[in-house]
Design a protein that fits this description.
Layout: E1 9-10, E2 23-27, E3 30-34, E4 47-54, E5 61-68, E6 75-85, E7 88-98, E8 101-109, E9 117-122, E10 132-138, E11 144-152, E12 161-171, E13 174-183, E14 191-196, E15 202-215, E16 218-225, E17 234-240, E18 255-256, E19 274-283, E20 290-297, E21 305-314, E22 317-319, E23 328-329, E24 336-338, E25 349-352, E26 356-359, E27 363-366, E28 374-378, E29 386-406, E30 413-419, E31 423-428, E32 434-438, E33 449-456, E34 459-464, E35 467-473, E36 480-503, E37 518-519, E38 529-532, E39 535-538, E40 545-550, E41 557-568, E42 575-581, E43 588-595, E44 598-604, E45 610-615, E46 623-630, E47 633-638, E48 642-647, E49 654-660, E50 662-673
Parallel strand pairs: 12-15
Antiparallel strand pairs: 1-23, 2-3, 3-4, 4-5, 6-7, 7-8, 8-9, 10-11, 11-12, 12-13, 14-15, 15-16, 16-17, 17-18, 19-20, 20-21, 21-22, 24-36, 25-28, 26-27, 27-36, 28-36, 29-30, 29-33, 29-36, 30-31, 31-32, 33-34, 34-35, 36-50, 37-40, 38-39, 39-50, 40-49, 41-46, 41-50, 42-43, 42-49, 43-44, 44-45, ...
């Protein structure tokens, strides 16, 4: 097995110098962080935008700076973000020529650490006189959007100040109008400065720093508001069912998150972390956990330093523990990862035909483009649910290259391959049946691209450069994987494997059995468990406990779901929750139970059973329960915060969903090995 040393913990800030507006990009197993230029007026011939790099998000090193200063009259180089497209890297940034005159430009490089060369294009010149904080979002259909911060001086539909907007990108250098409203300031906490002299004495409000992601059915735009150098700076988000509405600057497609318990801020500061804001979002090393990178100041300091915290999806809402200043677990590593930094292949790789060797750029290369079938097999066994990342590029030849998924009990495999004519083909070698999907017409195969394969039960999903391109149902389980070429030379890098699944139940064509869910009792059937209306429903009101299991034994793991009661019988002790099945033992179940005045949370099946009252807690609303098992302890988190830690020591688990004397619904169910 190929794993790197796991860092135990880290503490914010993760860098000891100023690093404002941090944007973190993951490229082939390595992280690159970019920041606003610290020099407001850079010296001639100097460089701008500091860069850090890391392989684990804990230990960081300075790389240098991204690009050369453009020279007079340019100053205030702000908020760089880098996006990869067809193996090239595009750095979008804001730069000024006057205090309130400036726009968004783009620079280009062949490597994420640069050097970046300014393209000469100012994307926003023909639309607005001032724009900052660029963010590029790629939708699932491949369309790219440029989000930015502009000024809103019409007070009729909000407060006067800066807010966020969006426009389509025709190509990396060209915007298509119109610029469309996303989020403008509307709330008192977003005050930048009362009677701002540079704005004619107006009370000026600020919403800025957009960061957009898609989850389940919705688009989420995280943003910062307030004054970046005061303690009112904070983060929140807005939600929409489209990345860009039809109404131009009067559009109202995006709606602010209403907040919790009267607080509309998702992240705000305290006495230890002051003014947290301007975040980006990045996947952790295991490709399953999301993190936000943001900056904050600390007591006695003026520098904005960079921080990282987990970001969770609670059904259709976001949650994060940020802003944390205490020691926290380091980002989880994959079960297997190979960045090919050694001079020789690790023993877990078994070459079967072809000429496989390590290349200088951190890749393994099969260089014989004439060999009929070359395989590099990984001996690490696959679990029942997993995420597999493979980065690859074509070097020569006329046929295919990609990934094989092997069945251990038969001479058969699933071949997921890219062809020389830009097709993704998934073939069952036992039956000869195949599916084909075209890749984007402008794909340059000779540059690096990412395949991300995920298996949940028997449903295999394949993404190409972050874009879903194929789903297929496997007729047989698979137990190992390999890299392959057929009459082609190809390079492969940053291979990672994580034990993980996440079921959102958005496809009514799926069944629980297809996704790997099985009833607790072999004699039971799945008739009462149905996927519909974007959720998994347990419909029976029979006075009994209903449990559906999935997964396998892991030494440490996270497990969570968002759930609610649907129908209950009067005075029935209705409950729903999460189950863990130990071998040859009764299940351990963490229950939400309905009470006369709210609910209770209790754990059954362990000696240290506990019960905690939850007054005014409505089980007919969605709530998220997360269980984290590590070091013989069960950590219980409810709607985000940890509420209990229980000692527990059992040999093995599988996880499950449970109802008792009630019908219930579940969404966003996941398990990730640690």
């Amino acid at each position: 097995m190929i794993v790197e040393q796991q860092q135990a913990a880290f503490c914010n800030p993760f860098w000891h110098k100023g690093f404002a507006d941090p944007f973190v990009l993951k490229v082939r197993g390595r992280y690159y962080a970019y920041a606003t230029e610290t020099e407001a007026h850079p010296a001639e011939q100097s460089w701008v935008f500091p860069i850090l790099t890391s392989t684990d998000m804990v230990s960081w090193q300075e790389v240098g700076k991204a690009m050369a200063h453009l020279g007079s009259p340019h100053f205030f180089y702000w908020a760089p973000e880098v996006t990869e497209y067809n193996g090239q890297f595009f750095l979008y940034y804001a730069v000024h020529t006057e205090e309130f005159s400036g726009g968004i430009r783009v620079a280009v490089a062949d490597r994420p650490e640069g050097p970046f060369i300014d393209s000469g294009y100012e994307l926003t010149r023909d639309f607005v006189s001032w724009a900052i904080d660029p963010h590029v979002f790629k939708d699932h259909d491949g369309q790219r959007y440029l989000y930015m911060t502009i000024e809103y001086v019409d007070a009729e539909s909000g407060l006067v100040g800066s807010g966020n907007a969006v426009a389509r990108l025709i190509d990396p250098f060209t915007l298509q109008g119109p610029i469309t409203r996303v989020t403008r300031p509307t709330q008192s906490w977003q005050l930048f400065e009362k009677q701002r002299a540079s704005k004619g004495g107006l009370d000026w409000y600020t919403v800025e720093g957009p960061a957009v992601l898609h989850h389940r059915r919705y688009y989420y735009q995280m943003y910062s508001g307030g004054c970046y150098y005061r303690d009112n700076y904070a983060m929140s988000y807005a939600i929409a069912d489209t990345p860009m509405g039809p109404g131009g600057l009067q559009d109202t497609s995006w709606h602010d998150w209403p907040g919790r318990q009267g607080d509309p801020r998702l992240v705000h500061g305290d006495q230890f972390m002051i003014g947290p804001g301007h975040n980006s979002v990045v996947l952790g090393p295991n490709n399953a956990d999301h993190y936000i990178a943001y900056h904050a100041t600390q007591p006695g300091m003026t520098e904005r330093r960079p921080c990282l915290d987990r970001l969770f999806f609670h059904g259709d809402e976001l949650w994060t523990p940020a802003a944390l200043h205490t020691l926290q677990p380091a980002p989880a590593m994959p079960r297997l990862r190979d960045l090919f930094t050694s001079a020789e292949l690790q023993p877990a790789w078994q070459p079967l035909g072809g000429q496989w060797e390590i290349a200088a750029e951190g890749a393994v290369v099969q260089s014989d483009e004439n060999v009929k079938h070359a395989v590099l097999r990984q001996q690490e066994r696959l679990s029942t649910n997993w995420l597999l990342e493979v980065n690859l590029k074509h070097l020569g030849g006329s046929s295919t290259y990609g990934v094989l998924l092997h069945n251990a009990d038969a001479d058969s495999s699933i071949q997921c391959a890219i062809t020389a004519d830009r097709q993704l083909v998934c073939t069952d070698t036992a039956t000869g049946s195949s599916q084909t999907q075209p890749l984007p017409a402008d794909t340059i195969l000779e540059r690096w691209h990412q395949l991300l394969l995920s298996l949940s039960g028997s449903v295999l999903t394949i993404q190409f450069d972050g874009r879903p391109v194929m789903e297929t149902v496997l007729a047989r389980p698979v137990h190992s994987f390999a890299l392959m070429t057929e009459r082609s030379a190809a390079a492969f890098s940053a291979i990672s494997l994580t034990d993980h699944f996440r079921d959102e139940f958005l496809d009514a064509g799926h069944t629980p059995a297809m996704l790997g869910w099985t009833p607790a009792r072999p004699s039971s059937d799945l008739a009462d468990w149905q996927i519909r209306d974007n959720a998994l429903h347990q419909d029976s009101l029979v006075a009994d406990t209903h449990i559906l299991y999935k997964g396998q034994a892991y030494n440490q793991f996270d497990f969570g779901a968002t759930m609610k009661l649907q129908q209950v019988e009067e005075n029935s002790g209705a409950a729903l929750g999460l189950a863990m099945q130990a071998q040859d033992s009764e299940p351990i179940i963490t229950w939400f139970q309905q009470e006369q005045s709210g609910a209770s949370l209790k754990v059954e099946g362990i000696p240290a059973a506990t019960r905690q009252m939850l007054p005014n807690f409505n089980l007919h609303d969605w709530h998220t329960l997360r269980l984290e098992y590590r070091a013989d302890q069960l950590h219980i988190c409810l709607d985000g915060p940890e509420i209990a830690v229980l000692p527990i020591s059992v040999a093995a688990y599988r996880i499950g969903l449970a109802t008792r004397n009630a019908a219930g619904s579940f969404i966003s169910v996941w398990q990730t090995s640690r």
